[in-house]
Amino acid sequence: MKKKTLFPLAMAILIAAMLAGCGNQGSTTDSSEGTNGQAALKDVTVVLDWSPNTNHTGLYAARELGYYEAEGLNVEIALPGSGGADAMVASDEVPFGVSVQENVTQSRLQGVPLVSIAAVIQHNTSGFAAPVDRGIKSPKDYEGKTYGGWGSPVEEAIMKSIMDVDGGDISKVKLVNIGEADYFTAVKRDIDFAWIFYAWTGIEAELRGEPLDMQYIKDYSDQLDYYTPVIVTNEKTIANDPDLVRAFMRATSKGYQYAAEHPEESADLLLKAVPELDKELVHASQKWLSPKYQDDAPRWGEQKPEVWKNYSDWMYERGLIEQELDIDSAFTNDFLPETN
Known about the structure:
The structure is a single chain. The protein is of the alpha/beta class. The protein has two domains: 221 residues, 3-Layer(aba) Sandwich (D-Maltodextrin-Binding Protein, domain 2), CATH 3.40.190.10; 98 residues, 3-Layer(aba) Sandwich (D-Maltodextrin-Binding Protein, domain 2), CATH 3.40.190.10. Helices cover 39% and strands 16% of the residues. The strands form two sheets. Strands 1, 2, 3, 4, 5 and 11 form a six-stranded mixed β-sheet that branches. Strands 8-7-9-6-10 form a five-stranded mixed β-sheet, with helices on one face. Helix 6 links the parallel strand 7 and strand 8. Helix 1 packs parallel to helix 4 and helix 2 packs across helix 11. The chain starts with 9 loop residues before the first helix and ends in a 10-residue tail after the last helix.
């Protein structure tokens, strides 16, 4: 699972939302009665941000354990289309998706009505990683090395921020675009380090016997301890069907709480739903990530205003956004259950 930011898609999201207009009711279907005379389940789609992995285990657990069904929902977990989950949610094609805080921030400042309704993980588990033989022990060591990314402005800005803290000079780093190339292939071929989520790529490196040196970006600035990933909906769904959002989040919260408390069993549920995943990797990743879902928060999914403000201020200060974010409209905790 590679770190991925969708800044170039902000305008595409806005256009998709405008084209959808007010007539699109989203991917929810409701019937008053099923064939047996009982109330039918409402069909609901949640779109992932990437291919299925342990960031998503709570969603699969909620489905496989019947938590969604108990809320009257028949939930499909779908892969993102060409426009990504953000565009699909913003245009009301689907009511729910998985995104990241920086995408919500950028989108809202473009007039796109995304709203974050839960933090999947409380603290940022991403960072810059290199094979140990590259001798990269701190951000200053990026000097003279080659970084492989995907060309997002946020990459260079974050790298510069943590290098500045460590006394490094980003002008001495060679930046290349590796697109969708696999991390392990790229570091053997033409780069020294890249931005990864440790829960997936880092754990895979351990299993391969290819240890990494990792600099977690949150360790160098509180402003960079932002939420990634988050669960999003749109303003229209919140306004028109708040009961749906509450029901979805009650079940989703139970799913992530189960995954937090039962890493082995929840890993098996993810594998049952997506059997093509590597079993050893899923179990090892889940064991590492499960304690980090809720971490030090009072409940799973809780989002703090200061986290949204810190990161949006950082983006504004570095010219990544042109105005300050109205954080009160960007996220809400209102649809989380009081307790898990």
